């Protein structure tokens, strides 16, 4: 199906481009989210008559997104979760959790604006991209910790996961051999 893009779509084209996409992608994503129009003659004429207005609206939205991006860039949001001693979370931190933390921090973000390839499943500081506008992206830091105190230590750069020393097999073998030699069972 051919569609006319109403805004910039990554890996597809700029506003006003007529592109050919699969029918399902057009119906379920582009048309449903009002990112495109079907490329009929009537819609082409309508788009050309409204082009200046659409571009002006897009420019206004872009400027608003850039203003928010300046304040949001590099902000750190704390998410408290339960985790094991190794630092692996019992659950995970998803886009909804990050959006709620940002809202609590004074920024209004929708979970669809947060870009996570995989949910966060470990304690620590995580850089997360936020898609404010098709042309404006920023990165925020999500501090996943067990408590507020632990979050403060992580922010300072301290490790919060207890490092356990594991004995190597050689060390273990020497300890067993020494114990047997003391008992008089084996000569060293």
Automatic annotation (TrEMBL):
Q: Where is the Ribosomal protein L9 domain?
A: 13-40
Gene3D superfamilies in the record, alphabetically? Ribosomal protein L9, C-terminal domain (3.10.430.100), Ribosomal protein L9, N-terminal domain (3.40.5.10)
Name any one GO molecular function.
Answer: structural constituent of ribosome
Keywords (alphabetical) are:
Coiled coil, Ribonucleoprotein, Ribosomal protein, RNA-binding, rRNA-binding
| SUPFAM superfamilies, alphabetized | L9 N-domain-like, Ribosomal protein L9 C-domain
Q: Positions of the region Disordered?
A: 149-168
Q: Name one GO cellular component term.
A: ribosome
Coiled coil (UniProt feature): 37-71
Can you cite a GO biological process for this protein? translation
Q: Which HAMAP family match?
A: Ribosomal_bL9
What is the purpose of this protein? Binds to the 23S rRNA.
Into which family does the record put it? Belongs to the bacterial ribosomal protein bL9 family.
Identify this protein by name: Large ribosomal subunit protein bL9
Species whose genome carries this gene: Methylocystis heyeri
Q: Which gene holds the coding sequence for this protein?
A: rplI
